[in-house]
Protein 1
Amino acid sequence: MGILTHDVILKSILNKEIIIDPFDESIVRENGVDLRVGYEYAQYAFSNQIVDPCEIESSSGLFKIVEAKDSRIPIPPNSFVLLTTLEKVKLPDNLVGFCNLRSTLARYGLSMSPTIIDVGFEGNITIEIINTSGNYIVLRPGMRFLHVILATAEGKYSYKGTYLKQKGVTIPKGMKGEC
């Protein structure tokens, strides 16, 4: 497994081996790509309730999807939101993406759970952003927030899961029957 650097990533995008749409060359970094915040997000529709994923068939009533008003996404203290990337991404069957929050945003008190973009994935990326601080932190659509390290994977396999070709922010699937 090798990590792709700027020149290899750019060549792969220009040759349409990796698809990032919309594409702006400035998002290609030294050892990955920085994806940008999209224009919608999801948050819990209520608080102080018990959420048992093993009893949920569909989480559609648990979350509300919000359009970013005034180009701002306020993340409440000690809370989280689901963000979508502005870009749709399509990886070939031999590349995997390792997602990290940009360290500057982490220094303000934001964090995220480890996330992998599977080989062959196609669609917008939905990421959980957690505000660990006691303050509201505002993100804006179009700002770079997610650093994706691209690495080669041995063998070929294509992602065929629930979240393939997701558009916009995607709430979690129900897990009833999996537990």
Note: Residues 112 and 129 are 5 Å apart (CA to CA).
Protein 2
Amino acid sequence: MPLSNLNLSILLVVAICLILVLIFISLRKNASAMQSESLAELRGQLSQMVQASNQQQQTLASQLSDQSSRMEQTLSGFRQQLGQSLQQQTQSTHDNLTKLSERLAVIDTANNQISELTGQVTQLHNILANKTERGAFGEVQLENLIKTVLPPNAYAFQVTLPNQKRADCVLKLPNPPGDIVIDSKFPLEAWHSLQNAETKAEQQAARKQLAIAVRGHVKDIQEKYIVAGTTAESACLFLPSEAVYAELHANMPDVIEASYKARVWIVSPTTMMATLNTVRAVLRDARMREQTAIIQAEMLKLLEDVSRLDTRVDNLNRHFSQAQKDITEIQTSTTRITKRSHKITELDVSDDEDISVIETEVKPAPTLSQATDTPS
């Protein structure tokens, strides 16, 4: 700001010098009597111009000072706002980086879990690709369901039947219905064909293949695991897949009807759980009937004991009555003996009395048997 004032002062000085030069030239041209008057007039004008210039300079300096103050305030506010904005942006950036780091950690954990899950899926695929391991997979799932619902004495695994066929599981139920065999089956190849079918014709062919596979399993279970006199008249085919079970009921009602006719009930993990709960209720009812029979037998024995006790109480009552009667008779005899003793002690025997008189008054005492028969 001082530099601007200096430039303005220089400009004013230059302007004054130019005016003086012009005046000087004018004075030289007009070397007349009026030269002095013009010079005085010019001096007055110059004085006014100098005063006006000073006023303008002061006004300009004041305006420049005001503008400088306002600019300084504006710059100060701008610096403060800029500082706050930078601080907020820095904090926001730090928070965003922290959140990003946390999310990256979560993503890393999820990635590890996905890697583990991928390995497990690969292992499961390898298991399902092998028929033997696939059967073991279904058996393990069936075993876990049964152990969760039923008590240990209500089932057995890998049971050999009289026809030398080995059943995955046998539910031990009372007759009727008797022991029920459950066998696990999984038509994986046919199901994969249906899942991978793209056209309608491929889907129909895959469904036909799946129906043939399930019918074959139903027939095998009917022939192997329904043994007259050993098992119940029906058996269960356990499908360890809700999707296969839903497909059969949705699009293959003829297969379900064929299983009903063969008395082989197709169950999934969900329906198997409901079936096992029903079996548990049947077992509980059977145990209650057994306990009821035991209670009835014990009640009969208790009634016999009460009857014998009543007989013995009657006998004891008769003994007590006889004893009471004997005690009463004994009391009667002692009373008579006491009275006669008093009479004997009251007798006054003198020399003047005749002995015969005494003999006539004193009678012989009765025996105990006579005393008990004679009333007092």
Note: DSSP finds ten helices and five strands in the chain.
